[in-house]
Design goal:
Helix content is 12%, strand content 39%. It is mainly beta and 1083 residues long. The chain is elongated and about 200 Å long.
Length: 1083
């Protein structure tokens, strides 16, 4: 009944606990953030303290608004002082007082009365908004401090006294003092979102692209998931979207809602670029912002870099037409040429514009028309251009000037031109082509261009190559090479250069023509105006680059591989390419010193080529960003391509190839605590000496920095210990020392646990760095300190417990420990033949966790009462519990064992004939010989029977002479004989078989009583009731009758009397039952 009551109570408790938890969780969802206000006694008006302060947190804008007002006064001097005083607004995560404010910086500095009219100062209202940073989650306090400016102009000292109309005012307190009414005593709960926006928004205006050269702006950004992977979903219904805005003023969280802006795009998640095509006639400074729209929320606080901090100028409007264009020609007879000077008026509406000068043989209306040639450009403010007219010119030329802005916007259609200009350079004409130009293109090719000679038709042009400048005195066969012959009107040729050439060259072009005054072709070889050079022609591969340094390092908190190589002084305008190979390109062959990156597909080009236009830098350096969790050896090589495209792709271990060990994987550590006395690892700690061991999976650059305290350790801002224990010295760096022995990368720190320490866990904070500079902080909580012994609560047995024959002894209770239970053990003490015995400790396996207390275990053990030998109150049970730290507690009690049984009628205990229920000890069974024991008795009885039989027969023979007796007399004699020979029974009583059967019956009855459970066993603790004693014979008879139907008789049948009814009967005897064999326990 008691067990059922406890179970019902536990079930009710279990049903209440979930309801309570649900109520608490629902209650936590209710948020109440009322505005808070300052409270306290008012100070004197002369203190000029802020009044009616209110602080309000706005969860929509994620800002906190502070409102207050000036004192209301008609005191004119005070109002004048207000104009000279200021309010300093403070915010802190703890209540503010004078000492706290002294160490803070105000986030707002407000004039107490910005009005020029002192009468407006009284009761003036103020509102300041604090933009909360992202990820704010806490309670903050606000205060307003009044700061008095120096109003005493007499000595220029800041004494905070001010004099008005010969009256001196001296406030009792000045700046950095918090009065009660100016201090918000209650904190404001502020909770803001993390940044939910992209980063590093950039915009680049690209002019003169699009169908009409309207231009475009490319906007790019870095998504949040790139920086913090899996921050926002990119697929599914909950995927975020990207909004792009264009606006003419800078985006700020305070003005975003009211500013004019245009959403120009809304993109899917994951996009990182967008091109915005400009509308025509756009000329303005603009900003771009990129936001996320996620589950209806758009982060427009602009706390990161998701908006442009500086505007970009978008301009697709060409400059206006150039005005005041004029041109004039002036001949130069000495040179046989002439110059035409073109002038114009500079455009005031443009800055840094470029002027384009055009020339044609016909009037110019469109600069893109055929025959129109741009002959030069001029800069802003130049307003003139001088054009050298080629030799042989005789005719009219037309000129035009257009302007383009810095974005290349330009009108091809002219609104104003100039008339024809007469140009004559024919008179001093030299019979050579003009405008000769040669350029080495790289790759072994040089292109030569020129302008055909005027005044001739069907001419040929000879292209000469030389290492010196040709003149009329040059011997062409010795110093020049004819490399091409080109017909007229082609005006260009490409020359193939031999391999392994690196020298300057000159190119000259002469014309071979037939003139009207001569019947033979004429070639003018004076080389006066038809040469160009020198130009560098280079088909030779450059030398190997020299890779000076290659190593891994930290750059702005990121792991990179730094490569530094020497700038080649033998080249100019060369390009360097970095290659990476993640395996050994030499395949471990020390004799193989070089190879070719183009012939080994394991080499991969990384980063963009690095150009070196000048030789003013001694070296170049580039960094290769490294991802996390790398641990490899990488080869890097730097190859060089000169300005003409000649590349040297060889790599050499001694020059331009280096191996770098790239390790961005932080070291991993394993911790264990060793009991220094036993040398074994433990999970819970008692008083004693211990050693913390730190095992690293790789070598460290320095010994680990260790901070070892208990989990409840706490100290204030001054370093005073408030609670808990510390094992490492405060205020200094403590390092673990190497662990001596064969274990590599292992460290140790010894500490002691005392009995005075409270229950807590060990808190370990370790800072480690490997040889590659990868640092990691390890914060581990564990190894409970257990200074408390476990407790034992036993429900059964108790000193009042009584266990009867056939019942089970129920050992039942609960053990509790603040750390954990390791074992529960039970042993019994009992008496056997008045000698005390004890069993060995036996671990209880029936352990269950308590339904409401995880530190409590309920245990149960059953032991048959029949196993106890001597009866009475001397039985004792011992219970021992050991927690995980090795702390032990023992408990014991006595109980009573009796061999009474339960009656069927009223389920009461009854002990009838104690001798029956306390049988003697069962003798040890031994096999008897046929010549001892019962067999000898059987042999003796058999012999006696034989003697009696012989005597009987002799008597019969001796009496046979008297004649036959009556039949009745013979029957009586026969009965007497049968009684004499067989014990008065028709069965063969007294025979050996009879004896054996009797003994077997005794043994079987005893065995059945030992094996059979009593169906009338009663619960423990019930008092027994004994029946009144009857005579011994009546007790036996009742007992036999009672158990005859249910089980085998415990007692053997009594022997029949040897005498007949008329003679005296033998005393009725009772056989003692064989005592049940006791269950022996391990001692």
């Amino acid at each position: 009944m008691a067990g059922r009551s406890r179970g019902e109570a536990m079930r009710k408790t279990k049903s209440r606990v979930p309801m309570l938890l649900i109520a608490l969780m629902l209650g936590s969802l209710i948020t109440w953030a009322p505005p808070v206000a300052a409270e306290g006694e008012s100070s004197d008006d002369v203190e000029l303290q802020a009044q009616n302060i209110g602080v309000f947190f706005d969860s929509v804008t994620e800002t906190t608004m502070v409102q207050w007002s000036n004192i209301v006064t008609e005191n004119y001097p005070l109002m004048l002082q207000m104009q000279e005083s200021r309010y300093l607004v403070y915010r802190h995560n703890a209540p503010l007082n004078t000492s706290v404010v002294a160490n803070l910086n105000p986030w707002a500095n407000v004039s107490m009365c910005p009005s020029v009219n002192p009468g407006d100062c009284s009761g003036m209202m103020f509102t300041e908004t604090y933009p909360l940073p992202a990820g704010t989650n806490g309670t903050y306090y606000y205060a307003i401090v009044t700061y008095f400016e120096n109003n005493d102009d007499s000595d220029a000292t800041n004494d905070y006294e001010y004099t008005i109309n010969d009256v001196t005012y001296s406030p009792s307190h000045v700046g950095n003092f918090v009065h009660d009414e100016a201090n918000v005593s209650e904190g404001v709960a502020e909770l803001t979102n993390q940044i939910t926006a992209p980063f590093f928004v950039q915009a680049n205006f690209i002019p003169t692209i699009g169908a009409f050269n309207e231009g475009a702006t490319d906007i790019s950004w870095v998504n949040l998931n790139t920086i913090i992977p899996d921050s926002l979903p990119e697929v599914g219904e909950a995927a975020y979207e990207i909004a792009i805005y264009r606006h003419l003023e800078e985006a700020e969280r305070g003005t975003w809602g009211s500013m004019v802006k245009e959403q120009i795009a809304q993109l899917s998640a994951g996009e990182t670029t967008f091109r915005y095509m400009l509308e025509e006639n756009t000329d303005e400074d603009v900003y771009y912002s990129v936001t996320y729209i996620y589950l209806g929320y758009e982060d427009v606080r602009f706390l990161g870099t998701n908006t442009l901090s500086e505007s970009i100028h978008e301009d697709n409007v060409p400059p206006e037409s150039v005005q005041g264009i004029a041109a004039s020609f002036e001949a130069e007879p000495d040179g046989g040429t002439g110059n035409t000077t073109i002038t114009w008026t500079d455009l005031e509406s443009e800055t840094d514009e470029t002027y384009h000068i055009w020339r044609s043989g016909s009037p110019i209306n469109d600069t893109s028309a055929s025959g129109v040639e741009m002959i030069g450009v001029a800069g802003d403010g130049e307003e003139s251009y001088r054009h050298e007219v080629e030799r042989g010119m005789l005719g009219l030329a037309y000129y035009a000037v257009t302007a383009s802005d810095t974005n290349g916007n330009h009108y091809d259609i002219l609104s104003e031109g100039i008339g024809a200009v007469a140009e004559d350079t024919f008179t001093p004409w030299i019979a050579e082509p003009t405008n000769v130009y040669a350029e080495y293109l790289g790759g072994g090719q040089t292109t030569v261009t020129w302008t055909d000679q005027l005044g001739v038709e069907g001419e040929q042009y000879h292209v000469w190559r030389s290492s010196v400048r040709l003149t009329s005195l040059s011997n062409l066969e010795l110093v020049a090479e004819l490399v091409a012959t080109v017909p007229d009107s082609v005006e260009t040729v490409t020359i193939e250069i031999d391999d392994d050439i690196d020298e300057p060259s000159y190119y000259c072009v002469s014309s071979l023509a037939r003139y009207s005054l001569s019947s033979q072709p004429y070639e003018d070889l004076r080389f006066m105006q038809n040469c160009w050079g020198p130009i560098d022609e280079d088909t030779r591969s450059p030398d190997l680059a020299f890779l000076q340094d290659a190593y891994m390092t930290d750059l702005a908190g990121e792991k990179v591989t730094l490569l530094r190589w020497v700038n080649s002084m033998s080249e100019s305008g060369e390009t360097y390419q970095i290659w990476m190979c993640e395996t050994d390109p030499f395949d471990g062959n020390e004799t193989l010193m070089s190879g070719d990156v183009l012939l080994d597909d394991r080499w991969v080009a990384i980063l963009d080529p690095i150009e070196a236009p000048y030789n003013n830098m001694p070296d170049f350096a580039r960094t290769v960003p490294l991802s996390d969790n790398l641990d490899k050896q990488t080869w890097y090589a730097v190859t060089m391509t000169d300005q003409y495209g000649n590349a040297n792709t060889q790599f050499s271990m001694s020059m331009n190839a280096r191996m770098v060990t790239e390790d961005t994987t932080p070291p991993e550590v394993t911790l264990e605590v060793i009991d220094t006395e036993s040398g074994e690892a433990v999970d819970a700690l008692r008083a004693g000496n211990y050693q913390l061991r730190i095992y690293s999976n790789e070598p460290l650059s320095e010994y680990p920095i260790l901070d070892l305290t208990t989990s409840d350790y706490e100290e204030d801002e001054f370093g005073t210990v408030l609670s808990g224990e510390f094992f490492t010295e405060r205020g200094s760096i403590v390092r673990a020392q190497p662990l001596q022995g064969s274990v590599a990368n292992a460290y140790r720190f010894n500490f002691e646990i005392t009995n005075e320490m409270q229950n807590a866990d060990i808190h370990v904070v370790i800072s480690i760095s490997d040889v590659a500079g990868n640092m990691v902080d390890v914060d581990v909580m564990g190894w409970a300190i257990d200074s408390s012994e476990p407790t034992i609560e036993v429900y059964a047995p108790s000193p009042d417990s009584l266990y009867l024959y056939g019942e089970q002894i129920h050992v039942y209770g609960a053990v509790t420990d603040d750390v954990g239970i390791a074992t529960v053990e039970v042993k019994f003490r009992y008496y056997e033949n008045n000698l005390m015995r004890e069993t060995e400790w036996t671990a209880v396996t029936d352990l269950t966790s308590h339904s409401t207390d995880s530190n409590t275990m309920v245990f149960e053990l059953w032991e048959p009462a029949a196993t106890f030998h001597d009866l009475g109150f001397n039985q004792r049970v011992y219970i021992r519990v050991t927690d995980t730290s090795g702390n032990e507690r023992e408990w014991n009690t006595q109980f009573t064992v009796d061999n009474c049984i339960r009656t069927i009628v009223n389920y009461e205990s009854a002990c009838i004939g104690q001798s029956v229920f306390e049988p003697p000890a069962e003798p040890e069974a031994t096999e008897e010989s046929y010549y001892e024991g019962v067999y000898l008795m059987v042999y003796a009885l058999g012999g006696i029977n034989v003697v009696l039989l012989i005597l009987t027969m002799m008597s019969v023979l001796m009496a046979s002479g008297d004649g036959k007796k009556k039949k009745g007399e013979e029957d009586e004699d026969d009965d007497w004989m049968r009684e004499f020979m067989g014990g008065g029974d028709e069965a063969a009583a007294g025979s050996p078989d009879d004896v054996r059967n009797d003994m077997a019956s005794l043994s079987e009855d005893a065995t059945e009583r030992a094996d059979e459970d009593d169906p009338f066993a009663k619960s423990e603790g019930r008092d027994r009731k004994r029946r009144d004693k009857k005579s011994k014979s009546e007790a036996v008879e009742e007992e036999v009758d009672e158990f005859d139907d249910d089980e085998d008789d415990e007692f053997d049948d009594e022997d029949d009397d040897w005498d007949d009814d008329s003679g005296p009967k033998k005393k009725q005897t009772v056989r003692k039952t064989v005592k049940r064999k006791s269950v022996k326990r391990r001692k």
